[in-house]
């Protein structure tokens, strides 16, 4: 895909799609990862004297404006981080946005209102895309986290505005994740967690041939363990995925890839933060109890495997890490990943949040800003936002 350095931005008004979908609490941004990651592209453009019309979604407002999901607080935080003028428009393509874009000087940023306040964004409505496109004469997509969405600002605008190039964050994400799929230095270890087997089948299938070992945790491990014949008692088992798990286990066998499952779990009497709980071997979960985290023996064994990795990918928490009693598995894995001297990648979402909460992000080679996007990329899917940039260059 065409890169940012192929664009001479001076004198242009550049439409920049970023992923500024950050967590907010009482009107304040609580995690800057995505904002910080968006700065290099913005600085490059502003230094060249471009006017920047910045676009993002925030949350999932379903085509209706909502006070809590306005981008105002994000603009404020961005202004602090960037140290340049960032003005927030009160609408997306309406009078306020038009006036602010018209008044924008070289070296300044206008942030349009939350794109998803208009139903045209997720529908990739041509009229909405036309109106966005009318704001600029160049397009930069730096929203890796939204590249898997075929939305107006992601695919409709680059269809209409040329040149259309990838921003620095987009390029770095694609380079790093592509590197994982192209025979990286071994041993290559992947650790996958998260709630549902069904969400991870594609990625497991695509990684089975690439990795040397696949370590499984999170709620999805209970379906795998059940597929192996263990009695999971009250644990969450996706019964419609048992055959898929058996198939994946057999495929791993054929590929010579070691697919490892927990040997012990923290079992709880109910799904609650203060539930009675105890650590038990996977074959001895007491009747009526459910696994909510991987156990210490599993953490120790996964940790020693992780220590040997030359290349490592981690996606998905090992347990219900929002609750202290069931956070040790995720924390233990986060610490092992941080301590690993190989090339370490965290595939966005909850696992990225976990390493950041523990203050370990600096010790990881690459923390992806995309949750769903990085998973789809690792499944081998051609992300629509990337395909749109390639198409424009062809
Ligand atoms: C994310 O948080 O993964 C991205 O911002 C995409 O958000 P979405 O899943 O609501 O499209």
UniProtKB/TrEMBL annotation:
<feature type="binding site">
    <location>
        <position position="149"/>
    </location>
    <ligand>
        <name>(2R)-3-phosphoglycerate</name>
    </ligand>
</feature>
<keyword id="KW-0547">Nucleotide-binding</keyword>
<dbReference type="GO" id="GO:0043531">
    <property type="term" value="F:ADP binding"/>
</dbReference>
<dbReference type="InterPro" id="IPR036043">
    <property type="entry name" value="Phosphoglycerate_kinase_sf"/>
</dbReference>
<dbReference type="GO" id="GO:0006096">
    <property type="term" value="P:glycolytic process"/>
</dbReference>
<protein>
    <recommendedName>
        <fullName>Phosphoglycerate kinase</fullName>
        <ecNumber>2.7.2.3</ecNumber>
    </recommendedName>
</protein>
<comment type="pathway">
    <text>Carbohydrate degradation; glycolysis; pyruvate from D-glyceraldehyde 3-phosphate: step 2/5.</text>
</comment>
<feature type="binding site">
    <location>
        <position position="116"/>
    </location>
    <ligand>
        <name>(2R)-3-phosphoglycerate</name>
    </ligand>
</feature>
<dbReference type="InterPro" id="IPR015824">
    <property type="entry name" value="Phosphoglycerate_kinase_N"/>
</dbReference>
<dbReference type="GO" id="GO:0006094">
    <property type="term" value="P:gluconeogenesis"/>
</dbReference>
<keyword id="KW-0963">Cytoplasm</keyword>
<keyword id="KW-0418">Kinase</keyword>
<dbReference type="GO" id="GO:0005524">
    <property type="term" value="F:ATP binding"/>
</dbReference>
<keyword id="KW-0324">Glycolysis</keyword>
<feature type="binding site">
    <location>
        <position position="34"/>
    </location>
    <ligand>
        <name>substrate</name>
    </ligand>
</feature>
<feature type="binding site">
    <location>
        <begin position="57"/>
        <end position="60"/>
    </location>
    <ligand>
        <name>substrate</name>
    </ligand>
</feature>
<feature type="binding site">
    <location>
        <begin position="19"/>
        <end position="21"/>
    </location>
    <ligand>
        <name>substrate</name>
    </ligand>
</feature>
<feature type="binding site">
    <location>
        <position position="149"/>
    </location>
    <ligand>
        <name>substrate</name>
    </ligand>
</feature>
<dbReference type="GO" id="GO:0004618">
    <property type="term" value="F:phosphoglycerate kinase activity"/>
</dbReference>
<dbReference type="Pfam" id="PF00162">
    <property type="entry name" value="PGK"/>
</dbReference>
<dbReference type="InterPro" id="IPR015911">
    <property type="entry name" value="Phosphoglycerate_kinase_CS"/>
</dbReference>
<feature type="binding site">
    <location>
        <position position="291"/>
    </location>
    <ligand>
        <name>ATP</name>
    </ligand>
</feature>
<feature type="binding site">
    <location>
        <position position="322"/>
    </location>
    <ligand>
        <name>ATP</name>
    </ligand>
</feature>
<dbReference type="GO" id="GO:0005829">
    <property type="term" value="C:cytosol"/>
</dbReference>
<keyword id="KW-0067">ATP-binding</keyword>
<feature type="binding site">
    <location>
        <position position="34"/>
    </location>
    <ligand>
        <name>(2R)-3-phosphoglycerate</name>
    </ligand>
</feature>
<comment type="subunit">
    <text>Monomer.</text>
</comment>
<feature type="binding site">
    <location>
        <position position="116"/>
    </location>
    <ligand>
        <name>substrate</name>
    </ligand>
</feature>
<comment type="similarity">
    <text>Belongs to the phosphoglycerate kinase family.</text>
</comment>
<dbReference type="InterPro" id="IPR001576">
    <property type="entry name" value="Phosphoglycerate_kinase"/>
</dbReference>
<feature type="binding site">
    <location>
        <begin position="348"/>
        <end position="351"/>
    </location>
    <ligand>
        <name>ATP</name>
    </ligand>
</feature>
<keyword id="KW-0808">Transferase</keyword>
<feature type="binding site">
    <location>
        <position position="200"/>
    </location>
    <ligand>
        <name>ATP</name>
    </ligand>
</feature>
